[in-house]
UniProtKB/TrEMBL annotation:
InterPro entries the record matches: DUF4328
Keywords noted in UniProt: Membrane, Transmembrane, Transmembrane helix
Protein name, UniProt field: DUF4328 domain-containing protein
Regions that span the bilayer: 20-40, 71-93, 113-130, 150-172, 184-209
Domain spans labelled DUF4328: 61-213
The organism's taxonomic lineage, starting at the top: Bacteria, Pseudomonadati, Pseudomonadota, Gammaproteobacteria, Alteromonadales
Top-level taxon: Bacteria
Organism: Alteromonas portus
Amino acid sequence: MEMSDNKKEFKDPSNLIAWIKYFLCFQVVLAFVAIGSNLMEYQLLTDFQNGVYFSQEMAVADAEANDMRQAVIAFSYLGVFVVSGILILKWIYRANQNARQFGAKDMAFSPGWSIGFYFIPIVSLWKPYQAMKEIWQASQNPSNWPVEKVSSILGIWWFFWIANSVVGQAVFRMSRRAEEISEIMNVNLVSQASEVISIPLALVTWLLIKKVSAAQLAMRDQTSEQQETDEVSDLEPAK
């Protein structure tokens, strides 16, 4: 592939990663808010269990206020999570494309499948990791990417991703059948675990995106400089 094609087809991720950073920050802030709200709910449930309330009206009022607060936080977090997820998937697609523009050959995952495997049960446990690993390698050394070593950050990122997914599924399943106060308290504790896990997941995801994007931007700059050097050489008269 000609260097001029690389320059023409490379899609600068700078604006996209800026938006990802903002939404991941929102996500972390909301995770801390959700943890605090869940602690308040757990205390409320403990009071219910211990019979602290002498007035049913006051108990109902506090329960309704808790449910309203939890709902607002949950929907806010869901909205931010969905938007940040869409932005990250767009970045993965673009990062895969950019790696190919730098000359990476025989990549096993197309831009489409690098994000498509996130939505397919079972294979979503390992295929997205393999696709991200390939993007990392091709971004560092596109001419000989299969031999390129990967950073431990990929393993850390995938560990938190799987852990967050598993705990999130547990929260969903437990909440559907929770009826007794003790069961709701267990759901609350698992929800707090999910929120705690989501914080390092967001931070590691950002670090991964930042490193891959930095490698691709450096490659873009190097390619542009080489092209300019070649153009100057072509203009110089032969000796």
